[in-house]
Amino acid sequence: MSGAGFPQPGESRLKLAIIGVGLIGGSLGLCLKKNMGDRIFITGLCRTQASMQCAMERGAVDFAGDDLAKVVGGADIVFLSPPVLQIVPMVEKIAPFLKPGAILTDAGSTKNYVYQHLQPVLPDGVTYIAGHPMTGKEKSGVEAADATLFRGKAYVIVPTGAPQAAVDRLMSVLKYTEANFTTLDLATHDRCAAVISHVPHVTAAALVTLLARTGGDREACTRLIGGGFKDTTRIASSNADMWADICMTNGPAIADNLRALQGILGEVIAACETHDRQYIHDYFTASKKLRDGLLEHAAQEKIDPN
């Protein structure tokens, strides 16, 4: 636990409050403490005493607790990292303690839902800047936090309606993550997130479910599990609360892309049943070419796709 005390009136230290010191929030705390040291004072809201203790012992925060006034009172920036459906109710709870000029940002995987529902409850003088760091692990909790989690990863900022001065101030802190920042509008973000993140998670869980439904072959199949199944289904071990909320808040885009995927699989089914080897060969060739090209581009641009 850091020996630093709470910032006093007139101190120049920036105060950051992290709501939800889990994998993402904890990783941000570790990163900023490593790079900013005593120039930043970080408080964290945790659900359990064990999480509070772990967050402080690991150095992700200077203070952790469940007292909203202590955690967010006087905060210059509040980083919201609970499951998506908990973001707006949490802002309603912390609103009385937010100081004028405070900046709220988040790590929510869906943006339009949060933005639309947050506007009516956002206090006067407080700015919301939507964000989404496109990173994570299959493990959750502050125990899995990593100071380098954001490095080289895409980080979407949606500055809809935010004053440029507030955006600049937020970016002066987030730059220490060494993420690859990009801006998108709300709708484009949600459509793209569905394709490259949400549908892959649903699909990984579907493959595990497929194994569970193999009936009498399940035991035999389990003995054959190797790298292919393990790698393809790795993200099926992700937090269920988080992904349930994502599906509830980005349902149309996820459903549209799942139907598109269903159509592609239907074409492959038909080709398998009709022994259309050329179609299958072209299918694998095209996907390999596109994927290899994407990875080559990522390497050239120093983007970490892992």
- The percent range for strand residues is 5-15%
Helix content: 40-55%
Mean pLDDT, to the nearest integer, reads: 93
Number of strands: 8
Rounded to an integer in angstroms, the radius of gyration calculated over CA atoms is: 22 Å
Reported for the largest beta sheet, the result is: 8 strands, mixed
Order of helices and strands: EHEHEHEHEHEEHEHHHHHH
Instruction: Catalogue the unreliable spans.
Output: none
Overall shape: it is: elongated
**Spatial gap, N to C terminus:** 31 Å
Descriptive keywords:
8 strands; eight-stranded mixed beta sheet; 306 residues; 50% helix; alpha/beta
Can you describe this structure?
The chain is an alpha/beta fold and 306 residues long. Helix content is 50%, strand content 13%. It has helices spanning 23-36, 49-58, 68-72, 84-94, 112-118, 164-174, 186-212, 218-223, 227-232, 240-249, 251-273, 277-300; strands spanning 14-19, 40-45, 63-65, 77-80, 103-106, 127-133, 154-158, 180-183. An eight-stranded mixed β-sheet has the order 3-2-1-4-5-6-7-8, sandwiched between helices. Strand 1, helix 1 and strand 2 (40-45) form a beta-alpha-beta unit. Helix 7 (186-212) crosses helix 11. The longest helix is centred in the middle third of the chain and has 27 residues, at 186-212. The radius of gyration is 22 Å and the shape is elongated.
